[in-house]
UniProtKB/TrEMBL annotation:
Signal peptide: none annotated. In the C-terminal section; belongs to the phosphate acetyltransferase and butyryltransferase family. This is NADP-dependent malic enzyme. Residues 1-27, 637-659 are annotated as: Disordered. One of its GO terms (molecular function) is NAD binding. PANTHER family: NADP-DEPENDENT MALIC ENZYME. Keywords: Metal-binding, Multifunctional enzyme, Oxidoreductase. Its cofactor is Mn(2+); Mg(2+). Gene3D superfamilies: 3.40.50.10950, Isocitrate/Isopropylmalate dehydrogenase-like, Malic enzyme, N-terminal domain, NAD(P)-binding Rossmann-like Domain. Residues 16-149 form the Malic enzyme N-terminal domain. Residues 161-401 form the Malic enzyme NAD-binding domain. Pfam families: malic, Malic_M, PTA_PTB. Residues 8-17 have a biased composition (Basic and acidic residues).
Length: 756
């Protein structure tokens, strides 16, 4: 099947289309329904009647956008009518929800007269927090947007005009920087003079380009002042009429710094590219076929050619999804009256800045593991980069406040945290820990310091103020890798190179700790050159507060050195590996998933206590269940007695200040109706959030099933029970996992320091 057939099947599958309405409040009982509708609904109605702004408190208005079209300029399909535009408008709603958690009603108006459209949309103002105009042909779209902005007190945004302008504007800011040119000096040529081109040219001027340096071409050639005087162009094109001789697009491109294509494919030849100024910037954004192909533009010259298109299969995709969801998110959250020029500029600058930052591994993987580093091939972020939400939305919200468009002020630090929570519960949970870490950063030694991910993680923990990283490894290799990645550490990073450092004191300490385990002084000198042993001794001696390792080693071999050198805590005889699994509205800690193969009841009890302590670091009140295939003695054998006895031991322990019970089946532990109904005698009044598995096999299988089939996000494994903060990563972990575990380790170190 081809793409058309696949798309038809995709849209036709039951239920047809791409959107549905879900309830956000309980509707399970008669009381729920009486609150949702009659008679209870009268109360919020009266509140809103007294104060219309209360609609933002009692209804979905503040998170609801109307996507409005008359189908007069749909994609490259032309005027196909309102009904035929509906799949596109639903698709726009999907993007709003997927990228910014904004709900959408798509509105297709069977109207052509701009006045009729304005009247219809204006009448719907009580319904929406904002309006996104879509696929309305020029020049009518200019009049419609302008009148609606004047007559409505909610944001109105025509994405076809401004979306491309903002995204390509961000690309232009970075492209000019890469080639060392100033925006005010750029000679810019446009191919196309429709709504998108005119809005983009205007926006470039807002960013710093000069109107007199912009040459716009339509199908008849250069838009000159003479053509404007003769009435050959409409009033909107006249804004960019040049006092110059008439000519073709080819004439206009000679010696130009920038080409902006918003027209049709195949208009530009390699010869036209060769005629441009040194290190040209080419934005060929016609879809699906650009004005000149990526390959042809690159091959046309030997100097730097910065190329952007609207296609996802080439670098630098100018995709409007980088803009509208996040612009509306920021505008809605401050209850903005409009989306003004300051807010659009803020969005472009935030996108440009994000492209200069280290790219998460998950984004790199999503795009085929191609290198993504600021430069000619990467001047704008990728649409699937989750950071766009909490970079662009706050910038837009802040600009709305500063420009007077906001009706509500935000605490920006807390706002960013709320935005991160929209991307998943794991981000919300980690933000708790990372904020604690920032309050008092500690020294974290990264044993595999030559690894690229470790170096990138070190840069991020420094930037975020989470920890003071120490990289172990060859200094030249580390510095060369950092340089290749474009990372500048200055004096903020410590590097311990075994080849240049005096390790005698560490070898002495290792020998002292292990001499009765068969380790000679000579063997200690050899072992200390291993990063895991060196890091372990540094932490044991207090030269570092915590350590991370495991990226380049199997888990058991990475765990062995810290177990031998640091050992378990005074109140623990065993270490254990814990995963935090986050669901949409729930979190659970799963133990043990990495260390103890066949624990007895004493080990299970200890693992439960240590995991409960870990939950506290995430501000979670622990409720522990010791799991089995038996419920409270329904099966009695050696296997079921272990968790049962462990639970009994914990309940009688005066130091245990959290509810715990078992043995119980997994569904009993997490389903409130079962706990409070069938097993109302249980010490757990609410579902458990600490799940202790009976053995390593069950724990590993269980957490992976929850993660893969249950859609949970995993943080970990986090090592508990050690005498000092130590965490062993999994091979293949991403940079964000290293950063997260560094934060957990720092908080652990902080609490140990307070305890001392």
């Amino acid at each position: 099947m081809g793409i058309d057939e696949d798309s038809l099947e995709y849209h036709r599958q039951d239920p047809p289309g791409k959107l549905e309405i879900n309830t956000t409040k309980p509707t399970n009982t008669q009381r729920d329904l009486s609150l949702a509708y009659s008679p209870g609904v009268a109360a919020p109605c009266l509140e809103i009647a007294d104060d219309p702004d209360e609609a933002y408190s009692y209804t979905a208005k503040g998170n609801l956008v109307g996507v409005v079209s008359n189908g007069s300029a749909v994609l490259g399909l032309g005027n196909i009518g309102a009904q035929a535009s509906k799949p596109v408008m639903e698709g726009k709603g999907v993007l709003f929800k997927r990228f910014a958690d904004i709900d959408v009603f798509d509105i297709e108006l069977d109207q052509q007269d701009p006045a009729d459209i304005v009247t219809s949309v204006k009448a719907m103002e009580p319904t929406f927090g904002g309006v996104n105009l879509e696929d309305i042909k020029a020049p009518e779209c200019f009049e419609i947007e302008e009148r609606l902005r004047e007559e409505m007190s909610i944001p109105v945004f025509h994405d076809d005009q401004h979306g491309t302008a903002i995204i390509s504007g961000a690309a232009l800011l970075n492209a000019a920087d890469v080639v060392g040119k100033d925006l005010a000096d750029l000679d810019i040529v446009f191919s196309g003079a429709g709504a998108s081109a005119i809005a983009t040219a205007r926006f470039y001027v807002s960013l710093g380009a000069k109107t007199e340096n912009i040459t716009m071409c339509d199908s008849s050639g250069i838009i000159t002042q003479e053509r404007a005087d003769d009435g050959d162009v409409n009033e909107f094109k006249q804004e960019f009429a040049r006092d110059t001789q008439e000519g073709t697009l080819s004439d206009a491109m000679a010696d130009a710094d920038v080409f902006v294509g918003l027209s049709v494919g195949g208009l530009v030849s390699q010869e036209m590219v060769r005629s441009m100024a040194e290190d040209p910037i080419i934005f060929a954004m016609a879809n699906p076929d650009p004005e000149i192909s990526y390959e042809d533009a690159k091959a046309a010259r030997d100097d730097t050619v910065i190329m952007a298109t609207g296609r996802s299969d080439y670098p630098n995709q100018v995709n409007n999804v980088l803009g509208f969801p996040f612009i509306f998110r920021g505008a809605l959250d401050v209850r903005a009256t409009e989306i003004n020029e300051a807010m659009k500029v803020a969005a472009a600058e935030a996108l440009a800045d994000l492209a200069r930052q280290d790219v998460p591994d998950a984004v790199v993987k999503a795009y085929g593991d191609q290198p993504l580093q600021f430069g000619p091939e990467y001047i704008i972020p990728k649409p699937l980069d989750p950071r766009v939400l909490f970079q662009v939305a706050p910038a837009v919200a802040r600009a709305a406040e500063e420009s007077g468009a906001a009706r509500k002020e935000l605490d920006m630090d807390r706002y960013v945290e709320r935005l991160e929570a929209r991307l998943g519960k794991s981000r919300e949970m980690m933000r708790v820990v990372l904020n604690k870490a920032k309050s008092d950063p500690k020294r974290v030694v990264l044993a595999e310091g030559e690894d690229e991910k470790m170096i990138r993680a070190a840069a991020q923990v420094i930037e975020q103020g989470i920890a003071h990283p120490i990289l172990l490894g060859d200094r030249d290799v580390i510095e060369a890798t950092a340089d290749a990645l474009g990372l500048e550490f200055d004096d903020s990073l410590d590097i311990v190179d075994p080849e240049e450092a005096d390790l005698e004191c560490y070898a002495d300490r290792l020998h002292e700790l292990r001499k009765r385990k068969g380790v000679t002084r000579r063997e200690a000198s050899e072992l200390i050159e291993d990063g895991n042993y060196l890091a372990s001794v540094m932490v044991e001696m207090g030269d570092a507060d915590a350590m991370l390792t495991g990226l380049m080693h199997h888990y058991p071999s990475a765990l062995r050195p810290p177990l031998q050198v640091i050992g378990t805590a005074p109140d623990a005889d065993y270490a254990a590996g814990v995963y935090l699994l986050t669901f949409k509205n729930n979190v659970v800690f799963c133990a043990d998933a990495t260390v103890n193969q066949d624990p007895d009841e004493a080990v299970l009890a200890e693992v439960t206590k240590q995991t409960a302590k870990l939950a506290g670091r995430f501000n979670v009140e622990p409720r522990a269940a010791l799991l089995s295939y038996s419920d409270f003695g329904s099966v009695d054998n050696e296997g079921t007695r272990k968790p049962r006895n462990a639970a009994r031991q914990l309940r009688s322990d005066p130091e245990v200040d959290f509810p715990v019970d078992g043995e119980m089946q997994a569904d009993t532990a997490v389903v409130e109706e079962m706990l409070n109904g069938t097993y109302s005698f249980s010490d757990l009044d609410e579902p458990a959030n600490v799940l202790v598995f009976p053995n390593l096999e069950a724990g590993n299988i269980g957490y992976k099933l929850l993660q893969r089939l249950g859609g949970a996000e995993a943080i970990g494994p986090m090592l508990v029970g050690m005498d000092r903060p130590v965490h062993v990563l999994q091979r293949g972990d991403e940079v964000k996992d290293i950063v997260n575990l560094a934060g957990v380790a720092v908080v652990d170190a902080q609490e140990r320091e307070k305890g001392n």
